[in-house]
Design a protein that fits this description.
heterodimer, A: 387 residues, mainly beta, eleven-stranded mixed sheet, ten-stranded mixed sheet, B: 469 residues, alpha/beta, twelve-stranded mixed sheet, 24 strands, 35% strand
């Protein structure tokens, strides 16, 4: 979609309301995207890294532009050109938020790893929201060539704890035949940031995608994760870990599209909620008639740590082929009092016991993160959320 | 067993209830719906003024309410061609012999008088818009149990009806509850006094006979403290090339400590739109159970709901759906936990074959303050061939931390290992498949009254013969 058409759509479309499908439990009242302007000058600040890792490439994006801190050998790791024809081929404009990104994005990153290339160390891009009252619409285009292998870590951070901003990121991921891509998306924006993210991956023949999606920050918004298992033998695994407290509202909207035979997908989302926080998790497994031999799973488990927290879970299955194995599970529950009592009777404080139980709750999801520094940093970050 | 070349796998072709008679109705409002039709229905029934007012309000709401854009395809309903009210006989009969021969013959062929003798405590039989036969065992009448057609219920127990009518399912709930409230006719009115346990089921039987018929029965069940009743309804219709519409509303109140089980065996012919709103309120320590079998119809949209409003209330839904060629079963359940220590269990099984589409659509909602609420939902679906489809759309909303909510669902085909095992024991593939499917639905069929369980298994066998390979 051209910028002009996107701008027109942006102006004409209303903000989604709770009567729009997909937005039933996420009320955007009080949000005015027009109130956030693009800023030319950034106000970067020192932001502590979430984890220490040796990197093959590193970049940061803020309101003023893209800065490539280190580029990997043998791969493209560069600002995304405005005219790149691949832009918009995976993430389509679905609503005003999408139109905002298509019309207004200025800075993006292109990650293109050629066929057969393997990067031992991860690539890292940090998208930094630094200006109060500013919008930060960005894009990532990730192309994994045939049989390539690499890891990309995408972080969303704020320069200040109370920064009021609007971030809107579109991520398009093309996983070529036989490629193996690990993606880590870590969102730890300020509690005053409206955060929207529309992420779509298309998987080629016998490719593998392992995606970890972490949500710790932001005020309210929506994160979409769409996996298009487009060719035979593709496998995707998505692990979601989220923790919200105060009046935070997190919304994950996932889609497992099986469009080819013998494809596998496995989505597991775990979230803990404290105070008055709310979370929405929506998932759909769609198996097209030609996708015989599909094996698909989705799971969402929520742990409510206080009386006012609440969770909405909306799993879904649309199965149009018969030689399939598709299932889902969803649970909402609280801390097991017997466990808590047991731990406290062993001398633990209530906080320590709760922290341990929360760690246990997330264990299965954390165990799916192969890189130890990320896994440990995340476990520690979750632990600090329990006072 | 049938001959190998006869394709009994198509339930529509084996549908033994597809016959119709050509009896002349006593009165009909003709095709289409207007304000006058609503007034005429009310006048025919000599109703109190408040009911006419309610009907007219609902009619206005029906006109303004858009057709739902979710669930099944409702765009093909031709509201102008439907007969909204057809009165088959002058009055309700208390013996089958009083009925006109064609109508009596229909009930005989459906086996209702026979069943009444054997195992039912009371029977109501609705033909088109009116209840044509009604009877309750003397002993139950003596104990104060009321089992009447809804029209007679309104006449004889106006206070109870007025207290509850439209309180559980308001006409504003959805387009079809508005339509039902505007043109309702027939249905059952049941009142069970405190402590009375009705051991044998009460049965209502709904029959559509005419082409393009609209049947809009309205049922209200009040189970008083500590009482119990099991209500069973069955539905069939002739096969026509054009469509009929069935839009019922069922409201149930179970008072403290009471229990109500409501069993439906829906076997409409495949030209019937079945759009039904069913909701029950269970007060303190009361139990409501919906057993919902959906075998027939062109499109069914039905999600029996449980509102647990009293502490310790319990609700269960057992749902089974078969979708064969041309059928869409959009069925499910809702459980709303509005009081502490309430529990619900929803078990749904669906089978789709021959291009059919079966689904589960559900809601579990735990309100803030419903401490100790527990809910478990299990949905399983079998897809028997490449043309068929299965959907699962649950929604879980939890506003109370002290609650435990679980949902799981699985969609699969018949297991090859199971099939192989049974065939190695000498069963044919279709026998083996039938047996596996019977086993799959067994948790539900075992809850049905025996006669229905037998019928259900027979239907499964018919559905399955020659259908897999």
């Amino acid at each position: 979609m051209s910028r002009a058409r996107a701008e027109k759509a942006y102006r004409e479309l209303p903000l989604p309301t709770s009567s729009d499908e997909g937005w039933r439990f996420t009320d955007l009242t009080g949000f005015d995207p027009g109130a956030y302007e693009l800023a030319a000058v950034a106000r970067p600040a020192e932001i502590a890294p979430l984890f220490e890792l040796e990197l093959a490439g590193s970049a940061r994006i803020d309101e003023s532009g893209v800065e490539i801190l280190a580029a990997p050998d043998g791969a493209v790791f560069a600002p995304l050109g405005q005219k790149d024809k691949r832009i918009g081929t995976l993430v389509a404009v679905k609503d005003k938020i999408g139109a905002d990104n298509a019309a207004h994005w200025r800075h993006g990153l292109l990650v293109e790893v050629p066929a057969g290339v393997e990067l031992a160390a991860p690539l890292h891009v940090r998208i930094e929201s630094t200006v109060a009252g500013a919008a930060l619409p960005t894009r990532l285009l990730v192309v994994a060539g045939e049989n390539s292998r690499f890891t990309l870590i995408e972080e969303h951070v704020s320069a200040a704890e109370d920064l009021d901003a609007f971030t809107n990121c579109a991520v398009e991921v093309e996983v070529g035949a036989g490629a193996k891509l690990e993606l880590v998306t870590a969102q730890r924006l300020s509690r005053e940031t409206w955060h929207f993210s529309d992420q779509r991956a298309r998987l080629g023949r016998d490719s593998q995608l392992d995606w970890v999606c972490i949500g710790l920050g932001s005020r309210k918004g929506k994160t979409r994760i769409f996996n298009d298992l487009a060719e035979a033998g593709a496998t995707s695994r998505v692990t979601g870990i989220y923790f919200a407290d105060g009046s935070q509202h997190l919304d994950y909207d996932t889609y497992q599209e099986h469009a080819a035979p013998h494809t596998n997908s496995d989505f597991l989302f775990r979230g803990a909620l404290r105070d008055e926080a709310t979370a929405v998790w929506r998932g759909m497994i769609r198996v097209e008639p030609e996708a015989q031999g599909t094996d698909a799973y989705q799971e969402n488990r929520n742990l409510l740590l206080s009386r006012q927290a609440h969770a909405n879970s909306v799993p879904g299955l649309e199965i149009l082929a018969n030689d399939v194995r598709c299932s889902h599970g969803a649970t909402v529950g609280q801390v097991d009092r017997d466990q808590l009592f047991y731990l406290m009777s062993r001398g633990m404080s209530a906080s320590e016991a709760e922290r341990l139980i929360v760690r246990g709750f997330f264990a299965e999801a954390l165990d799916r993160i192969d890189r130890e520094p990320i896994r440990e940093a995340l476990a520690a970050a979750l632990g600090t959320r329990i006072p | 067993m049938s001959e190998p070349e006869s394709d009994v796998s198509q339930i529509g072709r084996d549908y033994k209830y597809g016959f119709h008679t050509t009896d002349e109705p006593k009165f009909s409002t003709g095709r289409g719906l207007t304000r006058e039709v609503v007034e005429t229905i009310s006048a025919q029934k000599s109703e109190p003024a408040w009911m006419l007012e309610r009907r007219l309000e609902a009619y206005e709401h029906f006109l303004t309410r858009p057709i739902p854009d979710w669930g099944g395809d409702l765009s093909t309903i031709d509201f102008d061609s439907i007969f909204y009210y057809v009165k088959p006989t002058e009055s309700e009969a208390a013996s089958w012999e009083e009925l006109p021969p064609d109508i009596k013959n229909t009930w005989d062929r459906l086996g209702i008088p026979e069943a009444e003798k054997k195992y039912l405590a009371g029977v109501g039989a609705q033909y088109e818009s009116e209840v044509v036969y009604h009877k309750l065992q003397e002993e139950l009448v003596r104990q104060g149990v009321v089992f009447l057609g809804m029209d007679v219920g309104l006449r004889d127990h106006e206070e109870i009806v007025r207290e509850h009518f439209g309180k559980i399912v308001p006409f504003r709930d959805n387009k079809f509850s508005a339509l039902n409230t505007a043109v309702w006719s027939g249905g059952s009115f049941i009142y069970v006094p405190p402590g009375v346990k009705v051991e044998m089921p009460l049965q209502a039987y709904f029959r559509i006979n005419a082409e393009n018929m609209g049947q809009f029965e309205r049922t209200l069940i009040v189970v008083d403290e500590g009482a119990f009743v099991h209500y069973v309804e069955g539905c069939t219709a002739p096969i026509y090339s054009s469509d009929s519409l069935h839009a019922a509303v069922v409201e149930i109140i179970v008072k403290p400590g009471g229990r109500c089980r409501y069993t439906t065996i829906q076997n409409w012919s495949t030209n019937v739109y079945n759009l039904v709103t069913k909701r029950a309120v269970a007060q303190e320590n009361a139990t409501i159970e919906w057993v919902d079998g959906n075998l027939g119809s062109k499109l069914t949209m039905k999600y029996p709901a449980i509102w647990l409003t009293g502490e310790g209330a319990h609700g269960e839904v057992l749902s089974i759906a078969f979708a064969g060629p041309g059928q869409h079963q959009d069925t499910g359940a809702k459980a709303v936990h509005a009081a502490p220590n309430t529990t619900s269990v929803i078990t749904a099984k669906s089978i789709s074959r021959g291009g059919g589409r079966a689904g589960y659509r559900g809601l579990v909602n735990v309100a803030s303050g419903a401490r100790g609420a527990k809910s478990k939902v299990v949905c399983d679906a079998l897809i028997l061939d490449e043309e068929s489809r299965s959907d699962t759309y649950p929604t879980i909303r939890v506003h109370e931390a002290d609650a435990n909510i679980e949902h799981e669902a699985t969609v699969s085909k018949i297991g090859e290992e199971q099939l192989f095992y049974l065939m190695s024991r000498g069963l044919t593939e279709s026998e083996a498949s039938s047996m596996i499917v019977s086993g799959f639905v067994e948790p539900i069929t075992k809850e049905l009254p025996l006669e229905y369980a037998v019928e259900m298994n027979r239907l499964i066998q018919l559905q399955m013969e020659g259908s897999v390979g």
